[in-house]
Structure to design on (179 residues):
């Protein structure tokens, strides 16, 4: 289920059965991640059932701020590579408000040269079309010159299918090895 970490935290904090959140994440949320629907609009009908008394923006902040932790060592490793002249692109399956949070609140816009997300491409990273958007963004770079790493095998296979060198990444040691 998408949103597993948020769903678990929310369920525990507000004493809501996790199944109450599942329907949203299995349906409307995926449409948001693909850029077809707006999260702030589609989540509204769920708020009474979820017992949320605050605003949409407060809910999104609760969700996003507690769902992500940056690994300083990994960020420093990426920055070193950027300082060596490498172009860093963050490829992510996310909806637009979370991407904005990641770029601005988490500071990832300063780490990565580009952030490409499923909400912009209209497809998830397990679809080769996702990577073709990167080719359009960086036409001077050949697919074989791109090193992609991800924690999901299906995303690795999709990237490799369009000529990208891809590595499976599960932890900081894997990242160091990839770079």
């Amino acid at each position: 289920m998408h949103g597993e970490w948020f769903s678990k935290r929310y369920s525990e904090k507000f004493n809501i059965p996790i199944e109450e959140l599942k329907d949203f994440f299995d349906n409307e949320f995926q449409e948001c991640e693909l850029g077809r629907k707006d999260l702030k609009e589609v989540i509204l009908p769920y708020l009474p059932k979820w017992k949320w008394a605050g605003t949409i923006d407060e809910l999104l902040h609760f969700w996003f701020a507690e769902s992500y932790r940056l690994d300083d060592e990994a960020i420093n490793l990426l920055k070193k590579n950027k300082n060596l002249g490498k172009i860093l692109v963050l490829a992510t399956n996310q909806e637009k408000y979370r991407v904005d949070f990641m770029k601005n609140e988490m500071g990832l816009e300063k780490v990565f040269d580009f952030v490409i997300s499923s909400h912009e491409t209209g497809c998830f990273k397990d679809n080769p079309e996702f990577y073709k958007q990167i080719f359009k963004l960086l036409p001077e770079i050949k697919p074989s010159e791109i090193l992609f790493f991800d924690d999901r095998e299906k995303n690795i296979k999709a990237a490799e299918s369009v000529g990208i060198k891809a590595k499976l990444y599960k932890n900081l040691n894997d990242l160091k090895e990839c770079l």
Notes: Strands lie at 89-92, 114-117, 147-150, 165-168.
